[in-house]
Amino acid sequence: MGFADLLNDVGGFGRFQWIHVTLLSIPGLLMASQNLLNNFTAGMPGHHCTIPNRTSIASSQNISQSEVDDRELLRAFIPMDASGTKLSKCTRYVEPQWHLLESNVSVIGHQANFSELETEICLDGWTYDKSEFLSTVVSEWDLVCTLRPMKQMSQTIYMGGVLAGAVIFGGLSDRFGRKALLIWSYFQLATLGTCTAFSPSFMTYCIFRFMTGMAVSGVILNTVSLKVEWIPTMSRTLVGTLSSFFFTFGQMVLAGIAHSLRDWRKLQMAVCAPFFLFFLYSWWYSESARWLVLNRRSDEALKHIHRVARINRKPEMVEKITMEVLECHMHKEVQSSKTTHTAYDLIRTTVMRRISLCLMVVWFSTSFAYYGLAMDLQKFGVNIYLIQIIFGLVDFPAKLVALGSLTFLGRRITQGTCLLMSALMIFTNIFVPTDMQSIRTTLACLGKAFTSASFTCIYLFTGELYPTVIRQTGMGFTSTMSRVGSMAAPAVLIMEEMLPALPSMIYGGAAVVAGIIAFFLPETLNIPLPDTIEDVEEKWAKKNLGAEERAEKEAVALREMKKGSVEGDGEITGLNAL
Protein backbone atom coordinates (compact mmCIF):
# COMPACT_ATOMS: atom_id res chain seq x y z
CA MET A 1 0.00 0.00 0.00
CA GLY A 2 1.27 3.46 -0.86
CA PHE A 3 0.22 6.96 -1.86
CA ALA A 4 -0.81 5.72 -5.32
CA ASP A 5 -3.52 3.63 -3.63
CA LEU A 6 -4.78 6.71 -1.80
CA LEU A 7 -5.05 8.58 -5.10
CA ASN A 8 -7.14 5.77 -6.54
CA ASP A 9 -9.36 5.80 -3.44
CA VAL A 10 -10.13 9.53 -3.87
CA GLY A 11 -11.07 9.22 -7.55
CA GLY A 12 -7.90 8.38 -9.50
CA PHE A 13 -7.67 10.78 -12.41
CA GLY A 14 -10.83 12.66 -11.59
CA ARG A 15 -12.19 16.18 -11.90
CA PHE A 16 -9.54 17.65 -9.60
CA GLN A 17 -6.73 16.17 -11.70
CA TRP A 18 -8.25 17.52 -14.93
CA ILE A 19 -8.51 21.04 -13.52
CA HIS A 20 -5.11 20.82 -11.83
CA VAL A 21 -3.25 19.60 -14.92
CA THR A 22 -5.02 22.06 -17.23
CA LEU A 23 -4.23 25.10 -15.08
CA LEU A 24 -0.61 23.99 -14.74
CA SER A 25 -0.33 23.42 -18.50
CA ILE A 26 -1.79 26.72 -19.75
CA PRO A 27 1.37 28.73 -18.93
CA GLY A 28 3.19 26.25 -21.19
CA LEU A 29 1.69 28.14 -24.14
CA LEU A 30 4.06 31.00 -23.32
CA MET A 31 7.04 28.97 -22.07
CA ALA A 32 8.06 28.33 -25.69
CA SER A 33 7.90 32.09 -26.20
CA GLN A 34 10.45 32.59 -23.43
CA ASN A 35 12.97 30.07 -24.71
CA LEU A 36 12.65 30.91 -28.43
CA LEU A 37 12.00 34.65 -28.04
CA ASN A 38 15.52 35.55 -29.16
CA ASN A 39 14.68 34.44 -32.72
CA PHE A 40 12.42 37.49 -32.98
CA THR A 41 13.50 40.06 -30.38
CA ALA A 42 17.10 39.63 -31.56
CA GLY A 43 16.31 38.97 -35.22
CA MET A 44 18.98 40.14 -37.65
CA PRO A 45 17.34 42.48 -40.20
CA GLY A 46 19.01 43.26 -43.52
CA HIS A 47 21.32 46.24 -43.13
CA HIS A 48 23.99 48.37 -44.75
CA CYS A 49 26.02 51.45 -43.88
CA THR A 50 24.03 54.65 -43.54
CA ILE A 51 24.85 57.16 -46.29
CA PRO A 52 23.88 60.67 -45.10
CA ASN A 53 22.22 62.87 -47.72
CA ARG A 54 22.85 60.41 -50.54
CA THR A 55 19.89 61.77 -52.54
CA SER A 56 21.20 65.33 -52.45
CA ILE A 57 24.70 64.12 -53.28
CA ALA A 58 23.30 62.26 -56.28
CA SER A 59 21.41 65.38 -57.38
CA SER A 60 24.67 67.32 -57.37
CA GLN A 61 25.90 64.81 -59.97
CA ASN A 62 22.76 65.36 -62.08
CA ILE A 63 21.48 61.89 -61.16
CA SER A 64 17.77 61.69 -60.39
CA GLN A 65 15.90 58.82 -58.77
CA SER A 66 13.79 58.55 -61.91
CA GLU A 67 16.95 57.34 -63.69
CA VAL A 68 18.15 54.88 -61.03
CA ASP A 69 16.32 53.27 -58.14
CA ASP A 70 17.50 53.47 -54.55
CA ARG A 71 19.30 50.12 -54.56
CA GLU A 72 21.19 50.99 -57.75
CA LEU A 73 22.15 54.31 -56.22
CA LEU A 74 23.62 52.53 -53.20
CA ARG A 75 26.10 50.75 -55.49
CA ALA A 76 27.95 54.05 -55.82
CA PHE A 77 28.41 54.26 -52.05
CA ILE A 78 28.60 50.64 -50.82
CA PRO A 79 30.75 47.79 -52.23
CA MET A 80 29.39 44.31 -52.89
CA ASP A 81 30.11 41.44 -50.52
CA ALA A 82 32.32 38.45 -51.29
CA SER A 83 29.57 36.73 -53.26
CA GLY A 84 29.21 39.74 -55.55
CA THR A 85 25.41 39.59 -55.30
CA LYS A 86 24.64 41.58 -52.14
CA LEU A 87 25.69 44.92 -50.70
CA SER A 88 28.34 44.79 -48.00
CA LYS A 89 26.91 45.09 -44.49
CA CYS A 90 29.94 46.57 -42.74
CA THR A 91 31.85 48.80 -45.17
CA ARG A 92 31.29 51.70 -47.57
CA TYR A 93 33.39 53.58 -50.12
CA VAL A 94 35.38 56.54 -48.87
CA GLU A 95 34.35 58.44 -52.02
CA PRO A 96 31.24 57.81 -54.16
CA GLN A 97 31.97 55.66 -57.23
CA TRP A 98 29.60 57.13 -59.80
CA HIS A 99 31.04 55.10 -62.64
CA LEU A 100 29.57 51.95 -61.06
CA LEU A 101 26.09 53.17 -61.98
CA GLU A 102 26.85 52.83 -65.70
CA SER A 103 24.74 50.11 -67.24
CA ASN A 104 27.68 48.46 -68.98
CA VAL A 105 29.58 47.80 -65.75
CA SER A 106 29.73 44.09 -64.91
CA VAL A 107 29.87 43.49 -61.17
CA ILE A 108 31.24 39.98 -61.46
CA GLY A 109 33.76 40.76 -64.15
CA HIS A 110 35.22 43.75 -62.35
CA GLN A 111 35.13 42.41 -58.79
CA ALA A 112 38.92 42.43 -58.65
CA ASN A 113 39.03 46.11 -59.62
CA PHE A 114 36.32 46.97 -57.05
CA SER A 115 38.40 45.44 -54.27
CA GLU A 116 41.10 48.01 -54.94
CA LEU A 117 38.78 50.92 -54.17
CA GLU A 118 39.28 52.48 -50.74
CA THR A 119 36.62 51.60 -48.16
CA GLU A 120 35.86 52.46 -44.55
CA ILE A 121 33.72 51.17 -41.69
CA CYS A 122 30.17 52.44 -41.13
CA LEU A 123 31.01 55.73 -39.43
CA ASP A 124 27.41 56.99 -39.52
CA GLY A 125 25.77 53.79 -38.28
CA TRP A 126 23.53 51.44 -40.21
CA THR A 127 20.25 51.53 -42.09
CA TYR A 128 17.98 48.54 -41.41
CA ASP A 129 15.42 46.82 -43.60
CA LYS A 130 12.05 46.95 -41.82
CA SER A 131 10.14 44.55 -44.06
CA GLU A 132 10.63 41.63 -41.62
CA PHE A 133 11.18 43.36 -38.27
CA LEU A 134 10.18 46.89 -37.29
CA SER A 135 12.55 46.88 -34.33
CA THR A 136 14.84 44.36 -32.64
CA VAL A 137 17.56 44.62 -30.01
CA VAL A 138 20.00 44.22 -32.92
CA SER A 139 18.71 47.29 -34.75
CA GLU A 140 18.20 49.32 -31.56
CA TRP A 141 21.72 48.86 -30.23
CA ASP A 142 23.52 48.15 -33.54
CA LEU A 143 24.60 44.58 -32.67
CA VAL A 144 26.04 44.00 -36.14
CA CYS A 145 29.47 43.57 -37.73
CA THR A 146 32.04 43.60 -34.89
CA LEU A 147 29.22 43.45 -32.31
CA ARG A 148 27.39 40.59 -34.06
CA PRO A 149 28.42 37.98 -31.40
CA MET A 150 26.44 40.00 -28.85
CA LYS A 151 23.23 38.62 -30.36
CA GLN A 152 24.21 35.06 -29.45
CA MET A 153 25.59 36.29 -26.13
CA SER A 154 22.16 37.60 -25.12
CA GLN A 155 20.70 34.11 -25.62
CA THR A 156 23.60 32.51 -23.76
CA ILE A 157 23.06 34.92 -20.84
CA TYR A 158 19.35 34.04 -20.76
CA MET A 159 20.18 30.33 -20.72
CA GLY A 160 22.69 31.05 -17.96
CA GLY A 161 19.78 32.38 -15.94
CA VAL A 162 17.80 29.23 -16.67
CA LEU A 163 20.82 27.24 -15.49
CA ALA A 164 21.10 29.25 -12.26
CA GLY A 165 17.37 28.85 -11.69
CA ALA A 166 17.59 25.08 -12.07
CA VAL A 167 20.27 24.94 -9.38
CA ILE A 168 18.60 27.39 -6.99
CA PHE A 169 14.90 26.59 -7.38
CA GLY A 170 15.44 22.82 -7.54
CA GLY A 171 16.84 22.69 -4.01
CA LEU A 172 14.54 25.38 -2.60
CA SER A 173 11.37 23.61 -3.72
CA ASP A 174 12.42 20.42 -1.93
CA ARG A 175 12.81 22.57 1.19
CA PHE A 176 9.90 25.03 0.95
CA GLY A 177 7.45 23.19 -1.28
CA ARG A 178 6.42 23.04 -4.93
CA LYS A 179 3.47 25.44 -4.71
CA ALA A 180 5.29 28.28 -2.94
CA LEU A 181 8.20 28.26 -5.38
CA LEU A 182 5.89 28.02 -8.39
CA ILE A 183 3.87 31.04 -7.25
CA TRP A 184 7.05 33.03 -6.72
CA SER A 185 8.41 31.97 -10.13
CA TYR A 186 5.24 33.19 -11.86
CA PHE A 187 5.54 36.55 -10.12
CA GLN A 188 9.26 36.90 -10.87
CA LEU A 189 8.78 36.04 -14.53
CA ALA A 190 5.84 38.44 -14.93
CA THR A 191 7.58 41.34 -13.19
CA LEU A 192 11.09 41.07 -14.57
CA GLY A 193 9.93 39.95 -18.03
CA THR A 194 7.77 43.07 -18.27
CA CYS A 195 10.63 45.25 -17.02
CA THR A 196 12.80 43.84 -19.83
CA ALA A 197 10.56 45.62 -22.35
CA PHE A 198 11.61 48.96 -20.85
CA SER A 199 15.38 48.30 -20.86
CA PRO A 200 17.31 51.50 -21.63
CA SER A 201 20.53 49.68 -22.57
CA PHE A 202 21.76 46.30 -23.81
CA MET A 203 23.41 45.57 -20.45
CA THR A 204 20.16 46.19 -18.57
CA TYR A 205 18.36 44.02 -21.10
CA CYS A 206 20.76 41.13 -20.49
CA ILE A 207 20.44 41.42 -16.70
CA PHE A 208 16.65 41.26 -16.87
CA ARG A 209 16.79 38.35 -19.33
CA PHE A 210 19.11 36.45 -16.96
CA MET A 211 16.70 36.86 -14.04
CA THR A 212 13.73 36.00 -16.24
CA GLY A 213 15.54 32.79 -17.21
CA MET A 214 15.85 31.88 -13.53
CA ALA A 215 12.08 32.22 -13.14
CA VAL A 216 11.49 30.06 -16.23
CA SER A 217 13.39 27.22 -14.55
CA GLY A 218 11.32 27.60 -11.41
CA VAL A 219 8.09 27.38 -13.41
CA ILE A 220 9.15 24.33 -15.42
CA LEU A 221 10.59 22.29 -12.53
CA ASN A 222 7.74 22.87 -10.10
CA THR A 223 5.06 22.40 -12.74
CA VAL A 224 6.41 18.95 -13.61
CA SER A 225 6.58 17.87 -9.96
CA LEU A 226 3.11 19.17 -9.05
CA LYS A 227 1.69 17.26 -12.00
CA VAL A 228 3.33 13.88 -11.47
CA GLU A 229 2.81 13.91 -7.69
CA TRP A 230 -0.97 14.31 -7.96
CA ILE A 231 -1.79 11.88 -10.78
CA PRO A 232 -2.12 8.06 -10.73
CA THR A 233 0.60 5.84 -12.13
CA MET A 234 -1.34 4.75 -15.22
CA SER A 235 -2.13 8.34 -16.27
CA ARG A 236 1.40 9.76 -16.17
CA THR A 237 2.33 8.96 -19.77
CA LEU A 238 -0.81 10.50 -21.24
CA VAL A 239 -0.62 13.59 -19.04
CA GLY A 240 3.07 14.12 -19.74
CA THR A 241 2.61 13.94 -23.50
CA LEU A 242 -0.57 16.02 -23.66
CA SER A 243 1.03 18.68 -21.46
CA SER A 244 3.93 18.95 -23.89
CA PHE A 245 1.44 19.85 -26.64
CA PHE A 246 0.89 23.17 -24.88
CA PHE A 247 4.57 23.97 -25.39
CA THR A 248 4.34 22.83 -29.01
CA PHE A 249 1.27 24.94 -29.73
CA GLY A 250 3.02 27.79 -27.95
CA GLN A 251 5.65 27.86 -30.70
CA MET A 252 2.94 28.73 -33.22
CA VAL A 253 1.42 31.25 -30.81
CA LEU A 254 4.84 32.92 -30.64
CA ALA A 255 5.04 33.13 -34.43
CA GLY A 256 1.58 34.71 -34.57
CA ILE A 257 2.28 37.28 -31.85
CA ALA A 258 5.70 38.14 -33.30
CA HIS A 259 4.26 38.57 -36.81
CA SER A 260 1.47 40.84 -35.61
CA LEU A 261 3.70 43.08 -33.47
CA ARG A 262 7.17 43.00 -35.12
CA ASP A 263 8.51 45.28 -32.39
CA TRP A 264 10.71 43.65 -29.77
CA ARG A 265 9.47 45.76 -26.83
CA LYS A 266 5.80 45.06 -27.56
CA LEU A 267 6.55 41.37 -28.13
CA GLN A 268 8.44 41.12 -24.83
CA MET A 269 5.51 42.66 -23.01
CA ALA A 270 2.96 40.44 -24.76
CA VAL A 271 4.62 37.15 -23.74
CA CYS A 272 5.39 38.12 -20.11
CA ALA A 273 2.40 40.15 -18.86
CA PRO A 274 0.00 37.12 -18.90
CA PHE A 275 2.05 35.55 -16.10
CA PHE A 276 0.43 38.04 -13.72
CA LEU A 277 -2.83 36.16 -14.41
CA PHE A 278 -1.13 32.80 -13.82
CA PHE A 279 0.25 34.19 -10.55
CA LEU A 280 -3.26 35.11 -9.38
CA TYR A 281 -4.91 31.75 -10.05
CA SER A 282 -1.90 29.69 -8.88
CA TRP A 283 -3.07 30.14 -5.27
CA TRP A 284 -5.78 27.57 -6.08
CA TYR A 285 -3.20 24.79 -6.51
CA SER A 286 -2.90 22.07 -3.89
CA GLU A 287 0.56 21.52 -2.47
CA SER A 288 2.00 18.06 -3.11
CA ALA A 289 0.63 15.77 -0.39
CA ARG A 290 3.64 13.49 -0.87
CA TRP A 291 5.99 16.38 -0.12
CA LEU A 292 3.94 17.49 2.90
CA VAL A 293 4.04 14.02 4.45
CA LEU A 294 7.76 13.68 3.88
CA ASN A 295 8.28 17.06 5.55
CA ARG A 296 6.32 16.05 8.66
CA ARG A 297 3.23 18.09 7.78
CA SER A 298 0.81 15.19 7.57
CA ASP A 299 -2.11 17.23 8.90
CA GLU A 300 -1.86 19.61 5.92
CA ALA A 301 -1.47 16.66 3.54
CA LEU A 302 -4.67 15.14 4.93
CA LYS A 303 -6.59 18.38 4.34
CA HIS A 304 -5.44 18.46 0.69
CA ILE A 305 -6.40 14.81 0.19
CA HIS A 306 -9.86 15.49 1.62
CA ARG A 307 -10.16 18.49 -0.71
CA VAL A 308 -9.30 16.31 -3.69
CA ALA A 309 -11.86 13.71 -2.59
CA ARG A 310 -14.61 16.34 -2.43
CA ILE A 311 -13.73 17.84 -5.83
CA ASN A 312 -13.65 14.33 -7.31
CA ARG A 313 -17.13 13.72 -5.83
CA LYS A 314 -15.92 11.12 -3.35
CA PRO A 315 -17.20 12.69 -0.09
CA GLU A 316 -17.42 9.33 1.64
CA MET A 317 -13.62 9.04 1.51
CA VAL A 318 -13.27 12.14 3.72
CA GLU A 319 -14.45 10.09 6.68
CA LYS A 320 -12.58 6.94 5.71
CA ILE A 321 -9.15 8.51 5.13
CA THR A 322 -7.92 9.50 8.57
CA MET A 323 -4.46 10.38 9.85
CA GLU A 324 -3.95 6.75 10.83
CA VAL A 325 -4.83 5.56 7.32
CA LEU A 326 -2.49 8.15 5.75
CA GLU A 327 0.41 7.22 8.01
CA CYS A 328 -0.25 3.53 7.40
CA HIS A 329 -0.06 4.03 3.63
CA MET A 330 3.10 6.11 3.87
CA HIS A 331 4.84 4.57 6.89
CA LYS A 332 8.08 3.92 5.03
CA GLU A 333 8.09 7.43 3.57
CA VAL A 334 7.44 9.00 6.98
CA GLN A 335 10.39 7.12 8.45
CA SER A 336 12.55 8.29 5.56
CA SER A 337 11.55 11.93 6.14
CA LYS A 338 13.49 11.87 9.41
CA THR A 339 16.68 11.75 7.35
CA THR A 340 18.09 14.94 5.84
CA HIS A 341 18.82 14.65 2.12
CA THR A 342 21.35 16.59 0.05
CA ALA A 343 22.52 16.66 -3.56
CA TYR A 344 25.15 14.08 -2.61
CA ASP A 345 22.33 11.52 -2.33
CA LEU A 346 21.99 11.70 -6.12
CA ILE A 347 25.28 9.82 -6.50
CA ARG A 348 25.74 8.20 -3.09
CA THR A 349 24.21 4.80 -3.91
CA THR A 350 24.83 2.56 -6.89
CA VAL A 351 21.50 2.83 -8.73
CA MET A 352 21.07 6.54 -7.99
CA ARG A 353 24.58 7.18 -9.31
CA ARG A 354 23.90 5.30 -12.53
CA ILE A 355 20.61 7.14 -13.04
CA SER A 356 22.12 10.57 -12.39
CA LEU A 357 25.14 10.09 -14.66
CA CYS A 358 23.04 8.77 -17.53
CA LEU A 359 20.45 11.53 -17.17
CA MET A 360 23.20 14.17 -17.20
CA VAL A 361 24.30 13.08 -20.66
CA VAL A 362 20.75 12.65 -22.01
CA TRP A 363 19.56 16.06 -20.77
CA PHE A 364 22.67 17.84 -22.08
CA SER A 365 22.52 16.32 -25.55
CA THR A 366 18.75 16.70 -25.96
CA SER A 367 18.90 20.42 -25.16
CA PHE A 368 22.15 20.89 -27.10
CA ALA A 369 20.71 19.44 -30.32
CA TYR A 370 17.27 21.04 -29.85
CA TYR A 371 18.50 24.61 -29.47
CA GLY A 372 21.17 24.10 -32.11
CA LEU A 373 18.33 23.51 -34.58
CA ALA A 374 15.69 25.86 -33.17
CA MET A 375 17.70 29.01 -32.44
CA ASP A 376 18.99 29.86 -35.94
CA LEU A 377 15.84 30.00 -38.06
CA GLN A 378 17.12 32.70 -40.42
CA LYS A 379 19.69 30.35 -41.97
CA PHE A 380 16.96 28.39 -43.80
CA GLY A 381 16.24 31.24 -46.21
CA VAL A 382 12.48 30.91 -45.51
CA ASN A 383 10.21 33.51 -43.90
CA ILE A 384 11.12 33.31 -40.21
CA TYR A 385 7.50 33.41 -39.05
CA LEU A 386 6.56 30.58 -41.41
CA ILE A 387 9.50 28.37 -40.40
CA GLN A 388 8.60 28.87 -36.73
CA ILE A 389 5.06 27.62 -37.43
CA ILE A 390 6.42 24.66 -39.42
CA PHE A 391 8.81 23.80 -36.58
CA GLY A 392 5.82 23.78 -34.23
CA LEU A 393 3.57 21.74 -36.50
CA VAL A 394 6.03 18.88 -36.99
CA ASP A 395 6.11 18.36 -33.23
CA PHE A 396 2.49 17.19 -33.12
CA PRO A 397 2.89 13.94 -35.09
CA ALA A 398 6.28 13.33 -33.46
CA LYS A 399 4.80 13.58 -29.97
CA LEU A 400 1.81 11.42 -30.89
CA VAL A 401 4.22 8.73 -32.04
CA ALA A 402 6.19 9.26 -28.83
CA LEU A 403 2.97 8.85 -26.82
CA GLY A 404 2.31 5.46 -28.42
CA SER A 405 5.90 4.43 -27.92
CA LEU A 406 5.95 5.57 -24.28
CA THR A 407 2.75 3.66 -23.59
CA PHE A 408 3.58 0.37 -25.28
CA LEU A 409 7.38 0.20 -25.64
CA GLY A 410 8.37 2.10 -22.51
CA ARG A 411 10.45 5.13 -21.61
CA ARG A 412 13.92 3.74 -22.23
CA ILE A 413 13.37 2.59 -25.83
CA THR A 414 11.51 5.80 -26.72
CA GLN A 415 14.21 8.04 -25.26
CA GLY A 416 17.09 6.28 -26.98
CA THR A 417 15.31 5.95 -30.34
CA CYS A 418 14.30 9.63 -30.47
CA LEU A 419 17.88 10.75 -29.88
CA LEU A 420 19.34 8.36 -32.44
CA MET A 421 16.77 9.38 -35.07
CA SER A 422 17.47 13.07 -34.50
CA ALA A 423 21.18 12.35 -34.97
CA LEU A 424 20.41 10.56 -38.24
CA MET A 425 18.49 13.61 -39.56
CA ILE A 426 21.29 15.98 -38.54
CA PHE A 427 24.02 13.86 -40.14
CA THR A 428 22.01 13.36 -43.33
CA ASN A 429 21.61 17.11 -43.70
CA ILE A 430 25.39 17.52 -43.89
CA PHE A 431 25.45 15.76 -47.28
CA VAL A 432 22.55 17.71 -48.83
CA PRO A 433 23.74 20.58 -51.11
CA THR A 434 23.01 24.08 -49.82
CA ASP A 435 20.98 24.96 -52.92
CA MET A 436 18.42 22.23 -52.04
CA GLN A 437 16.82 24.34 -49.30
CA SER A 438 13.51 22.50 -49.24
CA ILE A 439 15.17 19.15 -48.46
CA ARG A 440 17.51 20.73 -45.90
CA THR A 441 14.58 22.44 -44.18
CA THR A 442 12.57 19.19 -44.15
CA LEU A 443 15.43 17.23 -42.56
CA ALA A 444 15.99 19.98 -40.01
CA CYS A 445 12.28 19.93 -39.12
CA LEU A 446 12.38 16.15 -38.65
CA GLY A 447 15.51 16.41 -36.51
CA LYS A 448 13.87 19.08 -34.39
CA ALA A 449 10.70 16.95 -34.09
CA PHE A 450 12.66 13.99 -32.72
CA THR A 451 14.56 16.17 -30.22
CA SER A 452 11.24 17.70 -29.12
CA ALA A 453 9.82 14.19 -28.59
CA SER A 454 12.99 13.40 -26.63
CA PHE A 455 12.25 16.39 -24.38
CA THR A 456 8.72 15.10 -23.79
CA CYS A 457 10.08 11.75 -22.72
CA ILE A 458 12.96 12.98 -20.56
CA TYR A 459 10.79 15.27 -18.42
CA LEU A 460 8.44 12.39 -17.66
CA PHE A 461 11.26 9.84 -17.34
CA THR A 462 13.27 11.94 -14.88
CA GLY A 463 10.26 12.63 -12.64
CA GLU A 464 9.60 8.88 -12.47
CA LEU A 465 13.20 7.84 -11.80
CA TYR A 466 13.95 10.14 -8.86
CA PRO A 467 12.25 9.56 -5.47
CA THR A 468 9.96 12.16 -3.91
CA VAL A 469 12.43 13.08 -1.14
CA ILE A 470 14.91 14.49 -3.66
CA ARG A 471 12.83 14.67 -6.85
CA GLN A 472 13.19 18.43 -7.22
CA THR A 473 16.88 18.31 -6.38
CA GLY A 474 17.31 15.65 -9.05
CA MET A 475 15.21 17.57 -11.58
CA GLY A 476 17.24 20.69 -10.85
CA PHE A 477 20.52 18.78 -11.18
CA THR A 478 19.69 17.19 -14.52
CA SER A 479 17.99 20.33 -15.79
CA THR A 480 21.25 22.12 -15.04
CA MET A 481 22.96 19.95 -17.62
CA SER A 482 20.17 20.78 -20.06
CA ARG A 483 20.87 24.49 -19.60
CA VAL A 484 24.58 23.93 -20.10
CA GLY A 485 23.67 22.32 -23.42
CA SER A 486 21.39 25.20 -24.39
CA MET A 487 24.16 27.68 -23.52
CA ALA A 488 26.73 25.75 -25.56
CA ALA A 489 24.49 25.42 -28.65
CA PRO A 490 24.75 29.08 -29.80
CA ALA A 491 28.52 29.07 -29.22
CA VAL A 492 28.95 26.04 -31.50
CA LEU A 493 27.20 27.92 -34.33
CA ILE A 494 30.16 30.31 -34.42
CA MET A 495 32.31 27.39 -35.64
CA GLU A 496 30.36 27.47 -38.90
CA GLU A 497 32.79 30.17 -40.05
CA MET A 498 35.63 27.61 -39.97
CA LEU A 499 33.77 24.61 -41.41
CA PRO A 500 30.06 24.81 -42.35
CA ALA A 501 29.41 21.16 -41.44
CA LEU A 502 31.18 21.29 -38.06
CA PRO A 503 28.19 22.40 -35.91
CA SER A 504 25.99 19.64 -37.38
CA MET A 505 28.71 17.05 -36.73
CA ILE A 506 28.92 18.13 -33.09
CA TYR A 507 25.15 18.24 -32.57
CA GLY A 508 24.67 14.84 -34.21
CA GLY A 509 27.58 13.25 -32.35
CA ALA A 510 26.21 14.37 -28.99
CA ALA A 511 22.78 12.93 -29.85
CA VAL A 512 24.33 9.54 -30.78
CA VAL A 513 26.23 9.28 -27.50
CA ALA A 514 23.15 10.22 -25.46
CA GLY A 515 20.92 7.84 -27.43
CA ILE A 516 23.18 4.91 -26.58
CA ILE A 517 23.49 5.88 -22.92
CA ALA A 518 19.69 6.21 -22.59
CA PHE A 519 19.39 2.43 -22.97
CA PHE A 520 21.28 1.99 -19.67
CA LEU A 521 18.50 3.71 -17.67
CA PRO A 522 15.94 1.59 -15.74
CA GLU A 523 12.46 1.21 -17.23
CA THR A 524 9.61 2.96 -15.34
CA LEU A 525 6.57 2.02 -17.44
CA ASN A 526 3.56 1.33 -15.14
CA ILE A 527 5.77 1.41 -12.03
CA PRO A 528 4.57 3.48 -9.01
CA LEU A 529 6.58 6.59 -8.20
CA PRO A 530 9.41 5.90 -5.74
CA ASP A 531 9.21 8.00 -2.57
CA THR A 532 12.55 7.16 -0.94
CA ILE A 533 16.07 6.38 -2.08
CA GLU A 534 15.58 2.90 -0.63
CA ASP A 535 12.62 2.43 -3.00
CA VAL A 536 14.86 3.19 -5.96
CA GLU A 537 17.58 0.82 -4.82
CA GLU A 538 15.11 -1.95 -4.05
CA LYS A 539 13.21 -1.64 -7.32
CA TRP A 540 16.07 -1.56 -9.77
CA ALA A 541 19.01 -3.02 -7.85
CA LYS A 542 16.78 -5.99 -7.04
CA LYS A 543 16.10 -6.54 -10.72
CA ASN A 544 19.80 -6.59 -11.53
CA LEU A 545 20.49 -8.72 -8.47
CA GLY A 546 17.64 -11.04 -9.40
CA ALA A 547 19.15 -11.64 -12.82
CA GLU A 548 22.52 -12.41 -11.24
CA GLU A 549 20.93 -14.74 -8.69
CA ARG A 550 18.99 -16.59 -11.41
CA ALA A 551 22.19 -17.05 -13.42
CA GLU A 552 24.01 -18.30 -10.33
CA LYS A 553 21.19 -20.72 -9.46
CA GLU A 554 21.14 -22.07 -13.00
CA ALA A 555 24.90 -22.63 -12.84
CA VAL A 556 24.59 -24.43 -9.49
CA ALA A 557 21.74 -26.58 -10.80
CA LEU A 558 23.79 -27.48 -13.87
CA ARG A 559 26.76 -28.47 -11.71
CA GLU A 560 24.52 -30.62 -9.49
CA MET A 561 23.03 -32.32 -12.55
CA LYS A 562 26.47 -33.09 -13.89
CA LYS A 563 27.56 -34.32 -10.45
CA GLY A 564 24.44 -36.49 -10.18
CA SER A 565 25.07 -37.85 -13.65
CA VAL A 566 28.63 -38.82 -12.77
CA GLU A 567 27.52 -40.46 -9.50
CA GLY A 568 24.78 -42.36 -11.32
CA ASP A 569 27.23 -43.62 -13.89
CA GLY A 570 29.49 -44.82 -11.05
CA GLU A 571 26.65 -46.68 -9.38
CA ILE A 572 25.67 -48.38 -12.64
CA THR A 573 29.28 -49.43 -13.24
CA GLY A 574 29.47 -50.92 -9.71
CA LEU A 575 26.26 -52.87 -10.20
CA ASN A 576 27.54 -54.27 -13.47
CA ALA A 577 30.74 -55.38 -11.77
CA LEU A 578 28.73 -57.25 -9.14
UniProtKB/TrEMBL annotation:
Membrane topology (UniProt): Multi-pass membrane protein
Start and end residues of each Major facilitator superfamily (MFS) profile domain: 104-526
Short name of one Pfam family: Sugar_tr
TM region(s), chain numbering: 156-173, 180-201, 207-226, 238-261, 267-286, 355-373, 385-409, 416-433, 501-521
Cellular component terms (Gene Ontology): basal plasma membrane
Keyword check for Transmembrane: yes
Main location: membrane
Subcellular location: Basal cell membrane
InterPro entries, per the entry: MFS_dom (IPR020846), MFS_sugar_transport-like (IPR005828), MFS_trans_sf (IPR036259)
One GO molecular-function entry: transmembrane transporter activity
Keywords: Membrane, Transmembrane, Transmembrane helix
Protein name: Solute carrier family 22 member 6
Originating species: Oncorhynchus kisutch
Originating gene: oatx
